[in-house]
Amino acid sequence: MGAGVKLRQRGRRVRPRPQRRHRHRRRPERSMRDNDWAH
Questions:
Q1: pLDDT of 12-31, one tens digit each?
Q2: Which of 14, 16, 18, 24 has a CA between 20 and 30 Å from the CA of residue 5?
Q3: Start-to-end Cα distance in the chain
């Protein structure tokens, strides 16, 4: 549940804005190595 739900319950009208998904920036070869190390 996002913060928007709480505001809605208070009777506040907030126009829904489309969710923006941040795209993961992937680096060419390092992404694989970094991923392996991070997880």
A1: 666 677 777 767 676 666 66
A2: 24
A3: 26
Helix (H, G, I), strand (E, B) or coil at 38: helix
Q: Residues 6 or more apart from 7 whose CB is under 8 A from it?
A: 14
Read off the pTM.
0.13
- Higher confidence at residue 21 or residue 1? 21
**Contact in structure between 14 and 24 (CB atoms under 8 Å):** no
- Give residue for tokens 């208070």: 10
For residues 2 and 23, give the distance between their C-alpha atoms in angstroms, rounded to a whole number.
20
